[in-house]
From TrEMBL:
Residues 2-163 form the Spermatogenesis-associated protein 20-like TRX domain. One of its GO terms (biological process) is carbohydrate metabolic process. This is Thioredoxin domain-containing protein. InterPro entries: 6-hairpin_glycosidase_sf (IPR008928), 6hp_glycosidase-like_sf (IPR012341), Ssp411 (IPR024705), Ssp411-like_TRX (IPR004879), Thioredoxin-like_sf (IPR036249). It comes from the Bacteria. Gene3D superfamilies: 1.50.10.10, Glutaredoxin (3.40.30.10). PANTHER family: SPERMATOGENESIS-ASSOCIATED PROTEIN 20.
Length: 682
């Protein structure tokens, strides 16, 4: 019989609806049941495309004996971390503090008061590699709860007290309660230079994650200062990722990370947020350098998102699984993507298979499991027949389409759709792809229609056009505002600025402390053992720094000193952390670059169908000045009411014109696109 998860909308929770474990969703009722029975709570947190979550589910949660032990002695609660990032963040902080590491699946044992006392991640069904089996863990926790409950309560109380006593805002010095200065951003650059992998690109060793937010900072730093070192790190990293196995050489799009330091073998799940962030990075790299490789990857990644992740409602699904059926009924990681020489020959014939093996680095030994290879683009000598490459890729892609496809988590996450809207809008504008701008507009429309309520509060998720039950967190408001502001710059539709203002007003009222620090959850959100407050980037920009950037942009477009001041106060955390941990606050560093540069404000006025207006608008969008905002409108129209930056901006001698302002000072207007481009070159 299905358990309680059968009534949930999360694809991850539904994957566990037929487990013999008597799962509960996160709810007050679950903890009340634990209190009534006098048993501890097992909290299991994961997400639908998590490979090791699937492994533990198959090994333990589908096992009748393990399920019986759980059902008899625990209340088991399953959480989708993508639906409840607040729950995930609070208990992940406890896991990391206790063990020095974290990850998913996350396994935490709680008292009926939701206080954690024992932690872990994946546990195997049998003891291995120094890890106890999951059954041993359950028996150990059960014994401690039965025989030493007072001790368990004391441990849980100390953990909660320690977590509750941490306050970022209180720990900041007066110096750190202001935005970073140029010398502090230079210090961050130097720290990144020391950690840069000059041979293989990226930062650090294995596993290696795409450093999307750091790359945005480096591009902006190069634009502001002319630093060649910053640009070289971006170029080397983007080239290595684009040529590596982390990038899908046939269908486009990036996997979550590489398990090695060379970008060769990925962890194969594809996440919306990675692809949205990287699409934007490559588009911005093209904008800065004109790189053909950057252009190709930006467009292919945008096309991947629209082709593979777009839902019938117009939003973008969360992820594609790492695992798929290998053809024998067994789910195997990477089965959809890897190739052997024999498989190449079956599709291409002998000669083209030999060419493809050399071109994509497919060997008899393989680079992955079972002698299969992940497709890459290794350096090969001589000229390559471009038409032959296209033919080979088309035939391999068609053959791959016949394989069992990875599962798709089709819930819509507001925050990640905000990132996708920004990426698709800019990519569409740069490369004359109105279809991508329309896809961004459709996703924005879905967020307004389905995710926003009458008070302009956001739902975190939706599925099949129906909003989920969970409230939006800070990153939802911030990234949706960022997406809407970008869409407004591209489309000239001021209504998106208005909606962004609603969301950012909520940030000021519900998420901001008196000293300008930001919390991840609203003041009226469910009370957890700690109100989460994490300014550091993980897989996406932190809500804190994303809000800082969006507040600065909104203040520049509207002239709102309230929003600008809030954005600058929020950047104090970047002053505190930027020099010490720049890899983990890249988005904050990028926002700080915008603050140092102004950010510059560009108003393009003229009839929208006038080629001269369009030329000025394109020049404005292609400007590399960090965080520059762009408004487009016709004089005398309603546009200036929605976007105050357009107010009192007349044509110049009857011709479309562009006005550039910076730090409360405006330059003379120009009607020349080339002159405008020069003014916005950083």
């Amino acid at each position: 019989m299905p358990n309680r998860l059968a009534h949930e909308t999360s694809p991850y929770l539904l994957q566990h609806a037929d487990n013999p474990v008597d799962w509960w969703p996160w709810s007050a009722d679950a903890f009340e049941e634990a209190r009534r029975r006098g048993v501890p709570v097992l909290l299991s947190v994961g997400y639908s495309s998590c490979h090791w979550c699937h492994v533990m589910a198959h090994e333990s949660f589908e096992d009748p004996a393990t399920a019986a032990l759980l059902n008899d002695h625990f209340v088991s609660v399953k959480v989708d971390r993508e639906e409840r990032p607040d729950v995930d963040a609070v208990y992940m902080e406890a896991v990391q503090a206790a063990t020095g590491q974290g990850g998913w699946p996350m396994t935490v044992f709680l008292t009926p008061d939701a206080e954690p006392f024992y932690f872990g991640t994946y546990f195997p069904p049998e003891p291995r590699h120094g890890m106890p089996s999951f059954g041993q863990v359950l028996e150990g926790v059960r014994g401690a709860w039965t025989d030493r409950r007072d001790e368990v309560g004391e441990v849980a109380g100390r953990i909660v007290a320690d977590l509750s006593g941490r306050s970022l805002s209180e720990s900041l010095t007066a110096t750190e309660q202001r935005p970073p200065r140029p010398e502090e951003l230079h210090t961050a650059l130097m720290a990144l230079t020391r950690e840069f992998d000059a041979v293989r690109g990226g930062f650090g060793g294995a596993p290696k994650f795409p450093p999307s937010m750091v790359l945005e900072f480096l591009l902006r730093h190069h634009a502001r200062t002319g630093s060649e070192a910053a640009l070289e790190m971006v170029q080397a990293t983007c080239a290595a990722m684009a040529r590596g196995g982390i990038y899908d050489q046939l269908g486009g799009g990036f996997a979550r990370y590489a398990v090695d330091a060379t970008w060769t073998v990925p962890h194969f799940e594809k996440m919306l947020y990675d692809n949205a962030l990287l699409c934007r990075v490559y588009a911005h790299l093209w904008r800065a350098t004109g790189s053909d490789l950057a252009r190709r990857i930006a467009v292919e990644t945008a096309d991947f998102m629209v082709r593979e992740l777009r839902t019938d409602e117009g939003g973008f699904a969360s992820a594609l699984d790492a695992d798929s059926d290998d053809g024998s009924g067994k789910h195997v990681e990477g089965a959809y993507y890897v190739w052997t020489p024999e498989q190449l020959r079956a599709v291409l014939g002998e000669k083209d298979a030999e060419f493809a093996a050399q071109y994509f680095g497919v060997t008899e030994e393989g680079t992955f499991e079972e002698n299969a290879s992940v497709l890459q683009l290794p350096e090969i000598g001589g000229l390559v027949d471009a038409e032959r490459v296209v033919s080979v890729k088309e035939r391999l892609l068609a053959a791959r389409a016949e394989r069992p496809r990875p599962g798709r988590d089709d819930k819509i996450v507001a925050s990640w759709n905000g990132l996708a809207i920004a990426a698709l809008a800019e990519t569409g504008a740069y490369f004359d792809r109105p279809d991508l701008i329309q896809a961004a507009t459709d996703a924005a429309d879905l967020l307004v229609r389905v995710h926003m309520d009458w008070q302009a509060r956001l739902h975190r998720t939706s599925r099949d056009g129906a909003p989920g039950a969970n409230s939006g967190v800070l990153e939802d408001y911030a990234n949706v505002a960022e997406g809407f502001l970008t869409l407004a710059s591209v489309s000239g539709e001021g209504v998106w600025v208005e909606f962004a203002g609603f969301f950012l007003d909520t940030v000021l009222v519900q998420f901001t402390a008196q000293d300008g620090a930001l919390y991840d959850t609203a003041s009226d959100a469910e009370t957890l053992i700690r109100r989460p407050q994490d300014p550091t980037d993980s897989a996406t920009p932190s809500g804190w720094t994303a809000a800082a950037g969006a507040l600065l942009s909104y203040g520049a477009l509207t002239g709102s000193g309230l929003h600008r001041d809030a954005g600058e106060r929020a950047l104090g955390i970047v002053t505190a952390l930027g020099g010490r941990a720049p890899r983990f606050i890249g988005w904050g560093l990028a926002a700080a670059e915008a603050a140092l540069d102004g950010p510059r404000e560009v108003a393009v006025v003229g009839p929208r169908d006038d080629p001269a207006t369009r030329a000025l608008h394109r020049a404005a969008l292609l400007g590399t000045a960090p965080g520059a905002v762009v408004a487009l409108g016709a004089p005398g129209s309603d546009d200036s009411e929605e976007v105050p930056l357009l107010m009192e901006r007349p044509l110049v001698d009857g011709r479309p014109a562009a006005y550039v302002c910076r730090n409360f000072t405006c330059e003379r207007p120009t009607t020349d696109p080339e002159e405008l481009a020069e003014r916005l070159r950083g």
